[in-house]
Amino acid sequence: MKEELLHKLSSKSAPYTMDELAWLLEHIGDPDPEVRDELVYQSLTKGIIEAYFTIDQLRFLMAESRKRELLRARSVLTRSFTCLLYSNLLEVDGDVTTPFVGFLEADDRNFLFAAAISYLVDEKDWVGYDAKNGWIHAHAHGADFLVAAVVHPDFPTEKWTSIMTILKETFLNLPLRPTNGEEWRLARVLYLPIYQKRLEQELVVTWLASLNFPLVTPLDYQRYETFCSFLLDIYLQVNKENQLSKSLKIGIENFIQY
């Protein structure tokens, strides 16, 4: 199976069978990074984003992954890389330029929106890179999943309050200082919707004004510094697009002087 899938990965037209998709799903969290990253992840991404899979095959991936509850798997690798699968499914479902736009059933789409929000709360593993297993990056992949949800045209705007709460809790409860850019991936959850006018900057300003980071222990300072790095990336990215409002600029600057 691996050899056939490797051949198809380099091919520009070979169709995939349902058995091959089932194998890819079975190995989505394979502990071997060459299998997981270079074969499974690349094959799933190519098949979804470049439309080598059919609509029925995308619906199969959605149905089977839900049935197997892959986001609740014991293996963090399975949970983490399922986030990337779901990111891709949401991306094409909301993209009018793809043949898969609107392919998700409403129940599946709402499941993905809810799962994207809850994943960052539920996931406790903060390992970025592991010498044996390669990139685990569960919170970075969870951030990618949440980004795919919040930029989707059908994402309900009333969910922003929950997202702000989850971001606050994520940073206030960090067990360590992330070292693999997780806070920058999380920053995309806010600045990409700001680009697309899906998130009002005043909502972010109000949220920032409500935050209070205790500064007592060394870990408290690491949490605060990580959050400041998160804010600085938002500041730089939104300013780069000439979209930074005066109130958000002042709000971030004031918070970092906290």
UniProtKB/TrEMBL annotation:
**A Pfam family annotated for this UniProt entry:** DUF2785
Name this polypeptide is given: Aquaporin Z
